[in-house]
Amino acid sequence: MTTIMVVDDLVEITRLVSALLAMNGFETVAGRSGQDGMALLETGARPDLIISNLRMPAMDGLAFLYALKHDERWRSIPFVLMTANDTETVRREALAQGAAFVLGKPFHPCDIMNVIRRLGITPSPN
Asked: What is the pTM of this model?
């Protein structure tokens, strides 16, 4: 099954995005910081995409992205950064570090699904 990791320190955002993805045929795993995301990967999670918030405790989204892109085990996983601080500087830095897309908050659920489609990620057939 196609799995998407959702990482955000706000439980409400994680639940909303995870529910949206489940309704569209994706399996999800979730964490509350980049540190949680790394732990999930280290214990066997193999997501087809990671959607992460920028500002989080312990390890923020850019540090998480940096760690992923500098580890050959996870370098190829597409990464979408969500941020309420949607400035050109943040976009440029995230894309330079290897993010596939930067999604500004607030967002509409269709925005997430459009980004996933643009990345060519589809749910596994049942």
From this structure: 0.95
